[in-house]
Design brief:
Shape: globular
Structural class: alpha/beta
Number of helices: 11
Radius of gyration: 19 Å
Largest sheet: 8 strands, parallel, barrel
Number of strands: 19
CATH superfamily: Aldolase class I
Bound molecules: 3,4-dihydroxybenzoic acid
Number of domains: 1
CATH architecture: Alpha-Beta Barrel
Strand content: 15-25%
Strand order of the largest sheet: 6-7-10-11-12-13-18-19
Length: 332
């Protein structure tokens, strides 16, 4: 039986972001500490809310914090408000979720009010942003920093938005320019979320590292389609969308594993993480933390607490006491 103990001693609590209460449990002689770091960010546990789910406003994000998320990634936000695509935008399939929302968002100035409301929280808030060029990305990143975000996540991987996302993230020269320009304009860490829908993923990851990014988030959704046999038409209004959930986990694990061999900056795994064992597989592939999206739908908002308990139980059973021991274990 794992019992939580009050932690940490003040000497361990000197992370840049002053996030206290690392999640530490004791089981007999074994102390299990599931806190982790992403560059200068300290997370009490390695589960983060992925962009695009339950992040409409401060209220829904606070709920995910209350359910144990170790960090929150916001909705992807652009310079101007955007309506998104017509319905249907989301379809549940047998082994995952297919969506093409079309980047609906209120624009950075309005959304900034939601981020400001979360300023008192000790859980890192990471502002996801999308744009078509380096100037726009830098403007958005500066605003995120001003509103109180602890890091930004550059969305260069949405698989179906014209001029944005993958269109930006599959051009190495443009991506290098964007990342280095954003780094030049903000002091908070810059994460870059990459797509599995490219053949030169490792080259892109190296480009991102060389441009000065602080971490790579892998992966965004897999470009996919569902056709309705009766109407003979694609079901999504946008025809193609992004596939997420359990079915894409092996793709995400492979991408993290490939990137881990090519770069030194921390990796954040995302794609199909539903259980503690899924998270552990991503750590072994080289991830320092994981993001959870579709599983909030499948297991409910308490998925963060539940996955953390599952991680601790697995670590206890296999005699691991820190996440660091697990990171990249597949390479040992
Ligand atoms: C959307 C989809 C994505 O995969 C993403 O990264 C951002 C936004 C969307 O459809 O809105």
């Amino acid at each position: 039986m794992l019992t939580s103990v009050v932690f940490p001693p003040p000497s361990l609590n000197t992370g840049e972001n002053d996030f206290i209460h690392a999640d530490i449990s004791r089981c007999g002689d074994l102390v299990v500490d599931i806190s982790t770091t992403i560059g200068p960010l300290r997370l009490k546990n390695p589960t983060m809310l992925a962009s695009g789910i339950m992040d409409e406003d401060a209220g829904s994000m606070q709920r995910m914090i209350d359910c144990g998320a170790g960090a929150i990634v916001t909705k992807s936000i652009g310079v101007q408000p955007r309506d998104g695509y017509a319905n249907p935008t989301v379809i549940e399939l047998d082994h995952g979720i297919l969506n093409a929302m079309g980047l609906p968002n209120p624009g950075i100035d309005l959304y900034g009010e939601e981020i400001k409301k979360l300023q008192a929280t000790k859980v890192p808030i990471i502002g996801s942003i999308y744009a078509a060029d380096a100037n726009e990305f830098a403007r958005l990143a500066e605003k995120m920093q001003r509103f109180g975000a602890n890091a930004v996540e550059l969305n260069v991987s949405c698989p179906h938005a014209k001029h944005y996302g993958l269109e930006v993230g599959s051009d190495p020269a443009l991506l290098h320019e964007i990342v280095s320009f954003v780094k030049h304009h903000v002091s908070i860490p810059v994460f870059v979320k990459v797509s599995p829908n490219i053949m030169n993923l490792v080259e892109m990851a190296q480009t991102i590292e060389n441009a000065g990014a602080d971490a790579i988030v892998a992966i965004n959704t897999v470009k996919a389609m569902k056709i309705d046999l009766e109407t003979t038409r694609p079901l999504l209004a946008n025809k193609t969308g992004g596939y997420s959930g359990k079915a894409i986990k092996p793709i995400g694990v492979r991408c993290v594993y490939d990137i881990a061999q090519a770069v030194k900056i921390p990796l954040i795994g995302v794609g199909g993480i539903t259980t503690g064992e899924d998270a552990i597989e991503y750590f072994m592939a080289g991830a320092s933390a994981v993001q959870i999206g579709s599983a909030v739908y499948y297991r409910g908002p308490d998925v963060f607490n539940v996955v953390c308990e599952e991680i601790k139980t697995w670590m206890k059973d296999h005699e691991y006491s820190t996440i660091t021991e697990l990171i990249g274990a597949a390479f040992q």
